[in-house]
Every structure is written in structure tokens, then in C-alpha cells.
Amino acid sequence: MAPPAQAHRSPSPSQPSGKGEVSDLKSQLRQLAGSRAPGIDDSKRELFKKVISYMTIGIDVSAVFGEMVMCSATSDIVLKKMCYLYVGNYAKVNPDLALLTINFLQRDCKDEDPMIRGLALRSLCSLRVANLVEYLVGPLGLGLKDNNSYVRTVAVIGVLKLYHISAPTCIDADFPPTLKHLMLNDPDPQVVANCLSALQEIWSLEASTSEEASREREALISKPVIYYLLNRIKEFSEWAQCLVLELVAKYVPLDSNEIFDIMNLLEDRLQHANGAVVLSTIKVFLHLTLSMTDVHQQVYERIKAPLLTLVSSGSPEQSYAVLSHLHILVMRAPFIFASDYKHFYCQYNEPSYVKKLKLEMLTAVANESNTYEIVTELCEYAANVDIPIARESIRAVGKIALQQYDVNAIVDRLLQFLEMEKDYVTAEALVLVKDLLRKYPQWSHDCIAVVGSISSQNVQEPKAKAALIWMLGEYSQDMQDAPYILESLTENWEEEPSAEVRLHLLTAVMKCFFKRPPETQKVLGAALAAGLADFHQDVHDRALFYHRLLQYNVSVAERVVNPPKQAVSVFADTQSSEIKDRIFDEFNSLSVVYQKPSYMFTDKDYRGPFEFSDELGNLSIAAESADNVVPAQGVEANDKDLLLSTSEKEEIRGATFNVSGYSAPLYDSSAASVQSELAIISSTSAGSAPSSSLAIDDLLGLGLSAAPAPEPASVPPSLKLNSKAILDPGTFQQKWRQLPISLSQEFSLSPEGVAALTTPQALLWHMQGHSIHCIASGGHSPNFKFFFFAQKAEESSNFLVECIINTSSAKAQVKIKADDQSTSQAFSDVFQSALSKFSV
């Protein structure tokens, strides 16, 4: 009986058609290895191309390593390049094969063709095998003395590679002094530039352990070296010029004559076609003249034209980078660029990121003389089809108004925005009108007349709705329908998703009550009741605070919630002057483009949530399924504990206190219930304060003492942990993937602990005090996620913990993995004990 036919699969043209393809390549290469026939190099090229293509798509062709080395015995430069590429790729993963290449690479390093010598030396240094460093010293020494500049250029970079493979070998071979000699004497500018780059890196790394290296590093910015490099700067490539200019920026001249000499020498670099060279030159000019105020201002005038030229020429990416540097200069000296504001007008074909930065520039350069033209231009952008740019343009108009430039005209423009039938325009304008009223209360009459005609149902964005509600509460005495608009918003409390809006609504209703009590009494009761029943902790706490404040003393409540206000003179800047100065010091770097100092995006402490997410890989909160997150809606019973009456608290704690009849109002829509509750509030005397046993009363500063019954002393856990435990993220990730889950539990947090968990860092310090360390953390209220680790004190046994906390439910879901699973329960007790003690 014949065997069943196998399914036919057509081979991919980019992959071997069968297992014997690599074997066929090997036999064909072996046949060609010793052949001297005419045209043999062409045949080798085709086979080499096939080998390289297989290697590129991930097919293992290491079996033909020996044949490739044998076929490299040719003078064809193309074959040499492909062979070196193949050898460099497999030498990294298979050091044993690298030994086969040493002889032919060393032989090629002595070839007559300087191109082959350079390629062979580069490939030899690229093997990066620690066991082969002894074979690099000889060829590198010869390469540094080679007559051809290309070979010397490659040899200099080879020295740097050798240093990273084996620093002692590089130092013992006296390569750094040789590089210094070449830097100061070699006629080829590229060799000089490579020497400078290599020496900076080597001596910077060596300076921490060697005083001599530290002195040599300082010698690089000495006057003889700086002047030597500056005199040859026109010979260098653009990259080398930037390298030299970066070094010159660190040089401290002895007097003003030196400063002017250097600036005169570099004057023509400001007209260079390459933007990087221009920015590097500008950095030198700015840093040299920091202590010379008048000259520094003249430098701004001198560099203005080159920068504006770079903005208008080149790609959008280059324009954005140059604009970012212009922006930081404009922030330091806006008056110098005020007359050039038209250069920052947006073009229709520019990307959004360039337009947004130009809007910031227009805001920065605005002054009394150009405000009208700039605001007119910005108002045109408000009708832009690009909605984000339209929003930014309206914000820019508001920022200019807050700078006290032509306020009358700008307020009229903003009020016109409110009358436009575009939701996003109205939303942005409302936010700006609120800020303007805080700074210019005298405009309240004109603004409120327009704001009062806006329907709250047409405003959906949280910030805009919050601004509208703020104005309804702040100017309720001037807005006839304010209590009734607030009443309709309160009736739709359950449908409002934004906690920010609900917080503003509570405060606005309180303000309106103090100004128009008869019309707002019913609304206030409903708002307080809804706030107390709210699941968001901040809303609940504010409603409880207002309720107790009103019950304590109505006049005191008015002084707290609605005191006389002074106009805001200056709005807080988002960046401190220290940060701006730090960015200026890092001119011509990514810090300017990111608009933050380098440590904020290089140091792990400033990377934000899950700063180790790049190392931990799949340990990301976004990667978790929705089932693992504690739902806020499922915790109503626990949250109700915050609403327990005094008598209920007494029954739970079993303590004897002088109990009052006070209890927090429940959410009841009936008018009778609301009015009776408010009757209690309004009838409270000014000097009386009802007693209460809730511990939160004292936290509110009402002078009401409440001593809760002492909790029973907990038995200290028996497991002892190492307080100085160390575990790197890579090991944590590997163990987390390999170890099974020992325990999966759910713990409860105390109300005090929930209140303290405003940021992840609060819990990290607490757990560290219990010898439980955090390796990654992130999230924001109400969901936080942590990865902890701990080690036993007497042995190196690790415990790994994933902890997901939902502050709305006061629950923590904990997964524990352990090297020794028999101790998992003991560690769980330690972890639960530490978590239960977390509080403010």
C-alpha cells in the first residue's frame, strides 16, 4: 500500500526551499574556495548575497562559517565587505567561531589596499570578544601609525571599542597618550575629530578612579587645545564642528579679549547651512557672554537672523527643533523678538506641532505695541478646521489678556467666542472668562450678561462646565436664574461623570445659598445629600465638611466658603525659573525640545508611573485584564461605613460616649426630608458646636475631640525580613515569569489608609519601613498598582508581590510568589499586617 501523499507547500522565494539548502551553499562555497578560474568572483558574489540574505531574515547559516572565511582570500572589496559583515554577526553569538577569523583578519590588516586594511581592522575590533583582546593590540598600534588617513580614522575608533571590551588592556597599551598625540599633530581633520571624541569618552569614564585621567580631561579644555581646534574648525566635517563647539562651550576664557577673539573666529559659523552647527555656535556665544549683560543682549540681536532663517528653511522637523530653541530665548528676552512676531504666524501647510509652538511664541512676544495684530491673527485661527489648533489659539488670546495687554479689546473678542455656535470654542472661552474674572473683577457685569445666556446643557466638557458653575456660584447675585440652573444640575447629579464638576457644584450651591438663601435652601439640601452619597472620596469628604460646617455655625461657614476675594495678580507658572535656567544650560540638546531638564527623562526617579516598565516588560498595568481591577461600583457596603451615624459607630466600637442625635443626611428626593434637614442647619446658633464622636471631626479642625477605643494589640508576625534586600528588575521579571502563584488574597484598607494613598510614593515609604521594597509602581486614583519584593533575613529566599489597590472600595488584591512556597502564608501575614498599619 502506498504511503499517503504529503500536503504540498510552495517554498517562499526569500527562504530555503528545504533543509538541504544550507548544505548546498556550503558545498558550492567549498568548490569555489580554491578556484582561480576567470569570473570566479562573480560566482562568489551571488553565493555571498544568498548567505547574507538568509542571515538577514534570521536563518542560521553559521554552518558555512569556515567556507566563507576560505572564500575571503580575494582582492574583491565587495566580497570582503560581505564576508566581514557575516563574520561580525556570528562572532558575537559564537565566540568559538571568532577564533577562525583572527588569522585572515590580521592578514588583511597588512594588505596593500588601505581600504581593505581599514575594513579588516574595523571588523577585527567589532568582534567584541573578551578572549580575543590580545589580538587587537598589535593591529591597532600599526593602524594608528598607518600612512593612510582612513586606516588611522578606523584605528582611533577601534581603540575606543577596545576600551569598552577591556579597559585595562587599552590603558596598559598606552593608547590614550597616542590618541592625544594624533589629535594635536595629525594632518587629517577626521582623525583629529575621532581622537577628540574617543579621548573625551575614555577620560570621562576613567576620571572617577584616576586623578591623572581627571587632569587629562581638564586639559582638553585648556587654552592651547581650544585655540588649536578653533583654528582648524573650517577643515572639520559638520559633525566634528559640533563636537569642537560643544567643547569650546565648556571653556572659561581668562578675560573679555579672549571672549571677543573666540566670537570673531566663529562669526562665520552662524551663516553655516547646517542647523546643528549654527545652534552649537549660538550656545558658545550665549555661554561666553553670560557675565557680560550688554554683550549678552547684543548676542541675542546677532543670533536672531540666523535662527529665523533656519525656521523658514528646511523640513518641519528642523523648524520645530529651531523653534524650540527660539522659544527658550524668547522667554528670556521677549522684547528683542517683539518686532519679529510675524515670523511666528502659522502657515496653512505646517504640521500641528509646529503651529502649536508658534502659538506659544506669539503669546511670549506680545506687548503693548503688537497685541492688536497678534490677537487679530489668533482670532482667525479660532475658526480653523484643526480643532486642537483652534483651542490653542483661544487659550493664547486668554494668556495675552492675563498679561494686561489691551484687555478691553480682548475681553470683547472672548465674549464673541461665547456667541459662536461651536462647542469647543464655547468651552475654551468659558474657561478663559473665568480666569479673566479672577484677575479683572471689574469686567464681571459685561461677562455675566453673556454667560447667563449660555445653556448649561450645551456645555459638556468638564473644565468648561466647572468654569460655568464657578461663575454661577460666584456671581449668583447678578444672575437671576443662577439658583434654578444649579437646581437643574443638582437634579442630574447621578448623570454627571466628572468629579471635578460635582466638586464645583457643591461649592457653587453653598455660595449661592449665602447670597440667596430662600431660593437655594432646597437645592443645598439636595446637593449635600447627593454629595454624601457620592462614591468619589473627594466629593464625599467635601459634602461632609460643608454639612458639619453649616451645623457648627452658618456665619463661620460663609466666611470659609465665600470670603471676600482679592483679584489674582499673577497666575502660577507651570515651570519654575530654576528649571528654565537648567534647560538654558542644556542648550542645543533634547532638553530644549522636550522642554524639561535631562534628568527628568533620563533618571528613573522622574520617569513617572512604572518607571521600570521597559525592564519589566509585561508587568504593566495596561496589560492586565479588566477583571483584575476592583470595580468601584461593587463596594457600596464598605463606603457606607463613612456614613454611619454616631449611634451606629458606638455599637461597633463598644465605647461609651456622650452621643448626640446627629447623623449625616441620606439622599432623599422628597422635599419634606430636605427641608427638615436644612431646618436643623439654619437653626444652629452662631456660638454653639454640637458634640460628635467621629474621629474625622478633629481632623477638620472643629475642636471636637473624639478618642476612639484602642484597638487590640496585634501579634507581631514571626517571619523576619531583610531590611537591606536588593533585587534588580531583570531578575524580578525572570522570577515573576517562572514562579507559580503561591497565594492570591484580598485585603481591606482602613479609611485612614485610603485617605493617605493620594500618590503611589506614600505607600512605598511605609512598606519599606517594614522591609518590603517596591520595584515598580504606577496608576492614579482610584486604581494603583505596585510590585513589591522582600527577602528572608536568614537566607536569600525571595517573595514577589503584585498588589492592585482600589481606593474607592478600600480593597487590595494581592498575588504572592515565593522561592520557598512553604513560607508564603507567613509572609502574607507580614504583608497584611504592614498594609493594615498604613495611614496618614
UniProtKB/TrEMBL annotation:
Subcellular location: Endomembrane system
InterPro entries referenced in this protein's UniProt entry, alphabetically: AP_beta, AP_complex_bsu_1_2_4, ARM-like, ARM-type_fold, B-adaptin_app_sub_C, Clathrin/coatomer_adapt-like_N, TBP_dom_sf
Keyword Transport set for record: yes
Gene3D superfamilies xref list: Leucine-rich Repeat Variant (1.25.10.10), TATA-Binding Protein (3.30.310.10)
Cellular compartments per GO CC: clathrin adaptor complex; endomembrane system
Keywords, in A-Z order: Membrane, Protein transport, Transport
Keyword Nuclease annotated: no
Function recorded in the entry: Subunit of clathrin-associated adaptor protein complex that plays a role in protein sorting in the late-Golgi/trans-Golgi network (TGN) and/or endosomes. The AP complexes mediate both the recruitment of clathrin to membranes and the recognition of sorting signals within the cytosolic tails of transmembrane cargo molecules.
Membership in a protein family: Belongs to the adaptor complexes large subunit family.
This protein's name: Beta-adaptin-like protein
Organism the protein comes from: Citrus sinensis (Sweet orange)
Lineage of the organism: Eukaryota, Viridiplantae, Streptophyta, Embryophyta, Tracheophyta
